[in-house]
Design brief:
Chain A: It holds the Pfam family SecD_1st. The complex is a heterodimer of chains A (534) and B (327). In chain A, helix 12 runs parallel beside helix 14. Chain A has 3 domains: 213 residues, Multidrug efflux transporter AcrB transmembrane fold (Up-down Bundle); 85 residues, Alpha-Beta Complex (Hypothetical Protein Ta0175, Chain: A, domain 2), CATH 3.90.1070; 153 residues, Gyrase A, domain 2 (2-Layer Sandwich). In chain A, the strands form 6 sheets. In chain A, strands 7-8-2-18 form a 4-stranded antiparallel beta sheet. In chain A, strand 7 and strand 8 form a beta hairpin. With 534 residues, chain A is an alpha+beta fold. Chain A has 14 helices and 19 strands. In chain B, helix 5 runs antiparallel to helix 6, helix 8 runs antiparallel to helix 10 and helix 9 runs antiparallel to helix 10. Chain B has 11 helices and 6 strands. Chain B has a 4-stranded antiparallel beta sheet. In chain B, strands 1-6 form a two-stranded parallel sheet. In chain B, strand 3 and strand 4 form a beta hairpin. By secondary structure, chain B is an alpha+beta fold. Helices cover 62% and strands 8% of the residues of chain B. Classes of the chains: A alpha+beta (534), B alpha+beta (327). Strand 18 of chain A pairs antiparallel with strand 5 of chain B.
Chain lengths: 534, 327
């Protein structure tokens, strides 16, 4: 018992000093952090959103949406390659029903040529030679393209990667500080933004696909047919809520439009005549050339500006627009125009994202939680400390020292791992205080017991530590098991609780058993007491 | 210096004398808890049933306009709002179930939330609610199943550990004691209709960890005594073990309760339910370590031979039986 080698004392003291040092930057939070010397470690714990205030938003994509878009793109590509083929391959009876694309080749002698054209479209990118679509020919002339599950998976995966990037750009554009954007699972993205001014604006921005298209209006279409949603051949119907004619639909030509993804810039402005808020966009070179061609060939005709499948406005082309920039008018407010500009600048989302979970905590409530949590923690700790010293005297004092060091160590370890402190995490601290003393209670009660049985002081202390350690070990392992399950299955703040619990158990075993044992051994060796007050 | 002794030295209380009555009462309590959960149900928070909860403070009023608020939210067409006061009289929480269309459109819950936030802004000038929780049906189902799995997983993993470290009887005893603690906590939440949310699952897991802590300390002493006093009657031996660890049990429970009491009285309102659940759990857990975990060992016929390999002859067993051979 008394045999405590010098190197062990030094090693334990260094470890304690290191832990305490690592905890200090986290205690200098807020304003005072700038007085923290720079040559010392600067790792701090993070405050969870429930303490700092902010929003946690879980976005979910619908894989069916990706499949649908992919089918549409495939149809466009098939139409294009068949048209460009030499000689041109005529196809018809195109359908996208039941998640497969099917069409007829009008001339049966061209089936093989058509298959050749389709091959590059249906093979996946990369070296694996994975097929993205299965090609099947039925009744000699009908092609059926079925998406393979591997191809669809890759597509969803790519779409989610792109979506994550787009979201990051949008949030950066908003000027928000320290956002966390993480892909979660196959079809989800977690967005965490501390100290947010307006969560509703953020959600609106994240939920906007921002797919912009310009298409020519089919002004020859029969208004009655358009009103009832029937499209003339070669046209399609889009909803147009702000249509000045009062019909909530409009017919536009399928072909000859351009998409708005070739932008270099977008910004909110005002219409020079009406002074209404508008969005000014600038095309890149390729997009600008296409837009110039579209407007040159259709002077005097209206074209529809379509955002996410809904027509914003359908202005007349008064003159060719050659400069590569254009103005989007619509029923905007300054905010919504601004928001659309951000969305357009950061690119369109390849898949629609829906908010399936939101947790927002206002900064006041967060501050209130910190203050009340700290108050409760201090009162609880002081009560426990008093209790311990009144009951166990010197041994209680050692336990208290160990407990206090333990609190610093937990903070230090959390800072090293950049762990997050949440409100349940503060509760975890308080619980650790309650249960960390348990180890010392076990040891001290055992020493009392061994003394009662007549063992000599040094022997009683030795047996006390040894016998109690076994129960301490078993009890803490089971606590770690519970903590780990909480960490694995828990989410958000509850995870923060599990983190404090697990770290607290590990450090408390160290401080309560190893460190107090060292102090007791050093004291016994120096004083050789004849009486043991415990 | 005179030190405090909560429990006098060398107590000899016949705890186990009341074991039949205690276990009968406990079994009745478990059945009662199940009945309460079945009839009254748990007051699940949005975490587990979906929907939304908004907490707001009406800064410029003495008291929150509850009935007016209920009416104007009802006008949105999402059904009746559950409005409750929390903290100050001008603070309320507004809870809404999932809207009808949420089945097909997972985003419907959040759209409803946005409308209510908008209404609070336009009608009451509330710029920022204190907190907003909005959970879709699918996410809440996942949270619920994760919560259930973490509880079941913890119970099984811990029992398995006890089985490995001790004997199967101890594992079974610990599992039963934990089952008792968890059931009674559920019963308490059904009775009081306090909100049952993710934090409560965390509390339950902590209760499991704590109650087991207690059980293990008692079991560890039983194991030690079984090896030390090989001829002693099992009931007397269990009583001795419980008495020997009594001072520690009381001391630790009290420190835990003191820490938790601070959390209940001065802690944030957000984790009030959590703190209450923990406080109750410590009480139940301490009780169950003595009156559930120990008696079961009698019925499962634990004896000094439980720690000796079946094929060992008696002479060898005698040598193995020292306290050093633990585990």
């Amino acid at each position: 018992m008394l045999d405590f080698p010098r190197w062990k004392v030094i090693a334990i003291s260094l470890l304690l000093a290191f832990g305490v040092l690592m905890s200090l930057p986290s205690l200098f939070f807020g304003e005072s952090h700038k007085y923290w010397p720079t040559f010392l470690p600067d790792e701090t714990i993070n405050l969870g959103l429930d303490l700092s205030g902010g929003s946690h938003i879980l976005l979910e994509a619908d894989p069916a949406d990706v499949a649908r878009t992919r089918l549409e793109t495939m149809e466009e590509s098939v139409r294009a390659v068949m048209r460009r083929a030499d000689p041109r391959i005529n196809i018809g009876d195109i359908s996208r029903q039941d998640g497969v694309l099917s069409f007829m080749v009008r001339d049966s002698t061209q089936v093989d040529a058509a298959r050749e054209e389709l091959l590059p479209l249906t093979t996946g990118a990369g070296l694996t030679g994975q097929r993205d679509w299965d090609i099947e020919v039925r009744d000699d002339t009908r092609f059926v393209l079925t998406p393979t599950s591997a191809g669809l998976e890759t597509a969803v995966d790519n779409a989610m990667d792109t979506a994550t990037d787009v979201i990051r750009r949008r949030i950066d554009e908003m000027g928000t500080r320290e956002p966390t954007i993480i892909r979660q699972g196959d079809e989800r993205i977690v967005v965490q933004v501390p100290g947010l001014e307006d969560p509703e604006a953020l959600k609106a921005l994240l939920g906007q696909t921002a797919k912009l298209e310009f298409k020519l209006v089919d002004f020859e279409a029969d208004p009655n047919a358009v009103a009832s949603g029937r499209a003339p051949v070669g046209s399609q119907i889009f909803p147009y809520p702000d249509n000045p004619t009062g019909i909530p639909n409009i017919a536009v030509k399928r072909l000859g439009g351009i998409s708005g993804d070739k932008l270099t810039d977008a910004g909110q402005g005002f219409d020079q005549e009406t002074n209404a808020p508008v969005v000014n966009i600038t095309f890149d070179t390729e997009g600008g050339a296409r837009f110039a061609r579209l407007t040159q060939n259709n002077v005097g005709r209206p074209f529809a500006i379509i955002l996410d499948g809904e027509v914003l406005s359908a202005p007349n082309i008064n003159e060719p627009i050659l400069g590569g920039s254009a103005q989007i008018s619509g029923n905007f407010t300054v905010e919504s125009a601004n928001q659309l500009s951000i969305a357009l600048r950061s690119g369109a989302l390849p898949v629609e994202l829906k908010v399936v979970e939101e947790r927002t905590v206002g900064p006041d409530l967060g501050q209130d939680s910190i203050e009340k949590g700290m108050l409760a923690a201090i009162i609880g700790t002081v009560a426990v400390l008093t209790f311990m010293v009144v009951t166990y005297g010197r041994f209680g004092f050692y336990a208290n020292m160990a407990l206090t060091l333990n609190l610093f160590l937990i903070l230090g370890v959390m800072a090293i791992f950049n762990a997050t402190l949440t409100l349940p995490g503060i509760a975890g601290f308080i619980l650790t205080v309650g249960s960390a003393v348990d180890a010392n209670v076990l040891i001290n009660e055992r020493i009392r017991e061994e003394r009662r049985r007549g063992r000599r002081i040094i022997q009683a202390v030795e047996v006390g530590y040894k016998e109690a350690s076994r129960a301490i070990f078993d009890a803490n392992i089971t606590n770690v098991i519970a903590g780990l399950l909480l960490f694995i299955f828990g989410s958000g703040p509850v995870r923060g609780f599990a983190v404090v619990l697990i770290i607290g158990i590990c450090t408390s075993v160290f401080t309560a058993v190893v460190v107090t044992r060292m102090w007791v051994a050093l004291w016994l060796r120096r004083k050789r007491p004849q009486e043991l007050v415990i | 210096m005179k030190l405090l002794k909560l429990v006098p030295d060398n107590t000899n209380i016949g705890f186990l004398r009341w074991r039949n009555i205690a276990v009968a009462i406990s079994v009745l309590m478990i059945i009662g808890s199940f009945a309460l959960v079945a009839t009254k149900g748990l007051n699940f928070g949005v975490d587990f049933v979906g929907g939304q909860m908004i907490q707001v403070t009406f800064e410029d009023r003495e008291e929150a306009p509850v009935s007016e608020l209920r009416e104007s939210i009802g006008g949105l067409g999402y059904g009746e709002a559950t409005i409750q006061r929390f903290g100050e009289p001008n603070q309320v929480s507004i809870r809404m179930r999932l809207p009808d269309e949420a089945q097909e459109r997972p985003e419907a819950a959040n759209e409803m939330t946005a409308e209510i936030v908008q209404l609070l802004k336009s009608d009451y000038g509330i710029d920022k609610p204190d907190s907003v929780d909005s959970v879709s049906g699918k996410v809440s189902e996942e949270l619920l199943s994760k919560g259930v799995w973490s509880l079941v997983g913890a119970l099984l993993a811990i029992s398995l550990y006890i089985w490995i470290r001790f004997e199967w009887q101890f594992g079974a005893g610990a599992l039963f004691a934990l089952f008792h603690d968890v059931s009674l906590t559920f019963g308490f939440f059904a009775l009081t209709q306090l909100e049952f949310n993710l934090n409560i699952v965390a509390a339950l897991l902590t209760i499991i960890g704590y109650s087991l802590n207690d059980t293990i300390v008692v079991y560890d002493r039983i194991r030690e005594n079984l090896k030390k006093y090989r001829k002693m009657d099992i009931v007397a031996l269990l009583d001795l073990s419980v008495n020997e660890t009594l001072a520690r049990t009381v001391m630790t429970s009290l420190t835990m309760l003191v820490a938790l009491l601070a959390l209940i009285i001065w802690g944030p309102d957000v984790i009030f339910g959590f703190s209450v659940a923990m406080f109750l759990g410590v009480l139940i857990g301490t009780y169950s370590s003595v009156y559930m975990a120990a008696p079961i060992l009698i019925w499962l016929k634990v004896g000094p031979d439980s720690f000796i390999p079946a094929d060992a002859d008696n002479g060898k067993a005698e040598k193995l039986g020292g306290p050093e051979q633990a585990g």
